[in-house]
Amino acid sequence: MNNENQLKELVKQKYSEIALQDKETNQSSCCGAGGCSTEVYNIMSDDYTQLEGYNPDADLGLGCGLPTEFAKIKEGDVVVDLGSGAGNDCFVARKQTGALGKVIGIDFTPAMIDKARQNADKLGFNNVEFRQGDIENMPLTSNVADVVISNCVLNLVPNKTAVINEIFRVLKPGGHFSISDVVLIGNLPDKIKNAAEMYAGCVAGAIQKQVYLELIEINGFKHITIQKEKPIIIPDDILSNYLTSDEILNFKNSDAGIFSISVYAEKPITACTPGGGCC
């Protein structure tokens, strides 16, 4: 499955299903790929329950970090959340930006947008909105956001360069992003990389950590910092769906690994568009 449109449709279908599942089902999987593990309750996501602004109805257990923890959101900021799901990070960001700020969530999946809007209505927030759209071509004007956040989403997007360019475009000069995502170190077995279920589950769509960081730098961002990094351990009962016992052992003994990272970077105050001929 190499066609980008096919990959997008796979993700849209999978996350439409996820929008109708409960949190426990989603958390027992790889970013909601399905109830595929009995060995652990939660593979990737971090605990939001102690964060101000947290709303249980919006938490589907799909993340791989806590980008709002590091995003340096200030009162009055305009915050954009990429792949906003049911609104979990948006509502935490709204607590930080306050009634004077604004939070815009963008998601590719209509079912997620519907769920997020229902949650916002229940909370009575009039400064949190959700827009359906492709984050490779965001439904936003340029230079609108003080902060961009995202949680375990860019790894699902075929054209990561396009997304990074779009983040650069929508950020105000001097604005910044904090993004949690899944990256690889070393070479994963082909059987994992090529499995569609693992793609929708955030693993096979991930790229090498160094390539990820280089894409951010090449596209004009400065002060790139890894704010947090943790290994993602896929349980044997998931791996056994794709690998033999010997292949699992070889994988565990290799240098290859899957990691969640939270990355911070800034758009320069005096910035030109990469490739625009002015830098």
What report would you give on this structure?
By secondary structure, this protein is of the alpha/beta class. The chain has a single domain (4-266), classed as Rossmann fold (3-Layer(aba) Sandwich). 33% of the residues lie in helices and 21% in strands. The protein is built from 11 helices and 7 strands. The protein has helices spanning 4-19, 23-27, 67-70, 88-97, 110-123, 160-170, 190-193, 196-200, 209-218, 236-239, 245-252; strands at residues 78-82, 102-107, 128-132, 145-151, 171-185, 222-231, 257-266. It has a 7-stranded mixed sheet with strand order 3-2-1-4-5-7-6. The longest helix has 16 residues, at 4-19. The radius of gyration is 18 Å and the shape is globular.
